């Protein structure tokens, strides 16, 4: 991290051209709204985050129980797939 921003670094490629390089994934902080308090458990949060992308980090405030209005997770999102705006748990839709 640089400040509060993530820096993505890739292996060097001698044929790298920044003008035609495709970005296939990115890191995002996803805010998970309207979750019941029992979903704030690390195992549940991991399963939820994996629906969005590869879980990298759980917001420290959420993991300590300081904020229970929403959860924030940092995930690596595959940009070649459609982005999620919501997900369903036990028949109930939750916004991202």
Task: Please tell me about this protein's structure.
The protein has one domain: Alpha-Beta Plaits. Helix content is 16%, strand content 32%. It is built from two helices and five strands. A three-stranded antiparallel sheet has the order 1-3-2. β4 and β5 form a beta hairpin. The longest helix is centred in the middle third of the chain and has 11 residues. The model has no long low-confidence stretch (mean pLDDT 83).
Task: Describe how the helices and strands are arranged.
Blueprint: E1 25-33, H1 42-52, E2 54-58, H2 60-63, E3 70-78, E4 86-89, E5 92-95
Antiparallel strand pairs: 1-3, 2-3, 4-5
Protein name: DUF4283 domain-containing protein
Taken together, the total number of domains comes to 1
Strand neighbour order, sheet with most strands: 1-3-2
State the helical fraction: 10-25%
**CATH top level class name:** Alpha Beta
Shape: elongated
Radius of gyration (CA) equals 16 Å
The CATH topology comes to Alpha-Beta Plaits
What separation lies between the terminal Cα atoms? 23 Å
Q: Please identify, by name, the CATH architecture.
A: 2-Layer Sandwich
Number of helices: 2
InterPro entries: At4g02000-like
Protein name: DUF4283 domain-containing protein
Brief overview:
The protein is an alpha+beta fold and 96 residues long. It has 2 helices and 5 strands.
Any key phrases for this structure?
about 100 residues, about 15% helix, alpha+beta, two-stranded antiparallel sheet, single chain, three-stranded antiparallel beta sheet, Alpha-Beta Plaits
């Amino acid at each position: 991290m640089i400040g509060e921003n993530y820096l993505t670094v890739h292996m060097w490629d001698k044929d790298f051209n920044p003008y035609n390089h495709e970005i296939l994934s990115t890191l995002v902080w996803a805010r998970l709204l309207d979750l019941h308090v029992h979903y704030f458990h690390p195992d549940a949060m991991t399963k939820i985050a994996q629906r969005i992308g590869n879980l990298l980090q759980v917001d420290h405030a959420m993991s300590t129980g300081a904020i229970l209005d929403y959860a924030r997770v940092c995930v690596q999102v595959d940009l070649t797939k459609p982005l999620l705006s919501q997900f369903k748990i036990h028949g109930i839709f939750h916004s991202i």
